[in-house]
Design goal:
Blueprint: H1 8-13, H2 16-24, H3 30-43, H4 55-62, H5 66-78, H6 80-86, H7 90-98, H8 103-140, H9 143-159
Helix pairs in contact: 5-6, 5-7, 8-9
């Protein structure tokens, strides 16, 4: 029976550089990458699931500069009466402000998402390009090969989008009537 050596003891002993090296040296399936991304997400402190009801409040707060928050922290630090009256502390406000330290992670994920999105669309394009070539070639094959391929060609033909353009033949000109002579 195989034992699982990836327990918490081993994870604590490894540095981030060791983990990065191990990831780069390992052939990962998409499910493995998802597991790694989920593990990263689970280790980030203070992650808050999206709440659509908070969107308008978050949008308003985005208009206030960091200096506003810094001034509140300084004032709360200077006045315990203000802290009690506001039902918050300078440390609480600073902890929320300091979550912005995660911004480089966000920026890197945004970059990664853009690259991954493009790659997904690129590879779909390449797959369809090569499949269209195979379809055209397959339609021309005859003999036993053509018979073997016929069900596949029919499936491919059935899934192609129908051309919605009108035919390229121009409409027949309307018959002209000769002008009536003026009386």
């Amino acid at each position: 029976m195989a034992t699982n050596n990836s327990g918490p003891t081993n994870a604590v002993a490894a540095t981030s550089a060791d983990i990065v090296t191990a990831i780069r040296a390992t052939a990962l399936a998409p499910a493995d990458r998802v597991d790694i991304l989920r593990a990263l997400r689970e280790t980030m402190p203070d992650i808050v699931p999206p709440d659509p009801q908070q969107n308008s409040r978050i949008r308003v707060a985005a208009g206030l500069p960091r200096q506003f928050v810094d001034a509140a922290i300084n004032g709360l630090t200077a006045s315990s009466v203000w802290e009690r009256s506001a039902s918050t502390s300078a440390a609480e406000v600073a902890a929320h402000r300091d979550f912005d330290e995660q911004r480089p992670v966000f920026d890197e994920l945004k970059t990664f998402t853009g690259i991954l999105d493009y790659s997904l669309r690129y590879h779909h394009w390449q797959a369809t390009l090569k499949s269209r070539t195979a379809y055209r070639v397959g339609k021309t094959l005859g003999g036993d090969e053509g018979l073997i391929l016929q069900p596949h060609i029919e499936i491919m033909a059935a899934t192609l989008p129908r051309n919605k353009r009108k035919s390229k033949t121009p409409p027949a000109p309307a018959p002209t009537t000769p002008p009536k002579p003026a009386a």
